[in-house]
Design brief:
Blueprint (H helix, E strand, L loop, with lengths): L2 E9 L1 H5 L2 H18 L5 E7 L12 E7 L2 H13 L2 H4 E9 L3 H9 L5 H11 L1
């Protein structure tokens, strides 16, 4: 099933300490990798800067949104991000999951539906 993958990130101090030429080289490598995602069926929906005026703004300055073909590809994508050295330079949190019908998800919220791993974590905290 198609996945939605959202990255939220900020600069780490290590990024600022790198000379601009190194940052540019690294960014160009990432640009090429992202361009190559289309051939694997990934839709790069958007990259952007988190507006300071956003209501209930997440504490991250940048975001990326992708449509990924399936969960297996999603996990490989995550491994490739880590292998690229990205996390050395950027503090990041990720959001991902099956692309679902909005009505089904919202009605599931009414029934207190949770992702399977959240349920398991909640049960282990109760024990």
């Amino acid at each position: 099933m198609q996945q939605i993958f959202i990255e939220l990130y900020n600069y780490r101090p290590a990024w600022a300490k790198c000379p601009e030429s190194e940052r540019t080289d690294f960014a160009k490598r990432i640009v090429e990798a992202v361009r190559g995602l289309a051939s694997a069926g990934v839709d790069v929906v958007a990259y952007g800067m988190n507006s300071p005026g956003t209501d209930r703004r997440a504490p991250y300055d940048f975001f990326c949104v992708y449509r990924v073909p399936n969960v297996e590809f999603q996990r490989e994508f995550e491994r490739q991000i880590a292998a690229s050295g990205w996390y050395d330079y950027f503090e990041q949190v990720n959001v991902s999951g099956d692309a679902q019908d909005f009505e089904a998800v919202l009605l599931g919220n009414a029934g207190m539906a949770r992702p399977a791993s959240s349920i398991a974590a909640g049960i282990s905290q109760i024990r």
